[in-house]
């Protein structure tokens, strides 16, 4: 199952991030943000560490990875508003809010869950227990990133509903997102030789 997760995280979710206007602008205007190879590696590491069987144990890496991510978000919240180019394109004075993190969750966790359900109808094996464990894993991850518990979906149905009003209406191209998508697609073509 992990192969499917990484395929969906790496290609589906990373590409989707380029059409989430705030996320694309935050990434693009952050110091080093347009280095999509580095960003993709960090996203991959986050997903890999989150999906590891020992993710939340002393032997796992996810709690440390999550804390690093949260510290990075805090730095971006402090530094990015000082950027005149970012201030010129943003519609929100503070980057990476609880809402922004939830939108990213829906582009990752909810999107991947939806695809896995679709693939299950085509023969992929995924038990109800695995489906619930996947949700719980994301609930803990969101909590560790500082999302207030009352905003964290308590079921996949709640996640889908939240995604419909929080993510879907936002999807739109931006100059920054188009540039990032081009960089990302060129990165994948260098991996698959064209």
From TrEMBL:
Short name of any one Pfam family annotated for the protein: MPAB_Lcp_cat
Q: Which GO terms describe its molecular function?
A: oxidoreductase activity
Which InterPro entries does the record cross-reference, listed alphabetically? Lcp-like, MPAB/Lcp_cat_dom
- Residue stretches making up the ER-bound oxygenase mpaB/mpaB'/Rubber oxygenase catalytic domain: 7-184
Superkingdom:
Bacteria
Give TM segment ranges: none
Q: Which PANTHER family match?
A: ER-BOUND OXYGENASE MPAB_MPAB'_RUBBER OXYGENASE CATALYTIC DOMAIN-CONTAINING PROTEIN, SECRETED PROTEIN-RELATED
Protein name, UniProt field: DUF2236
Q: Which organism is it from?
A: Microtetraspora sp
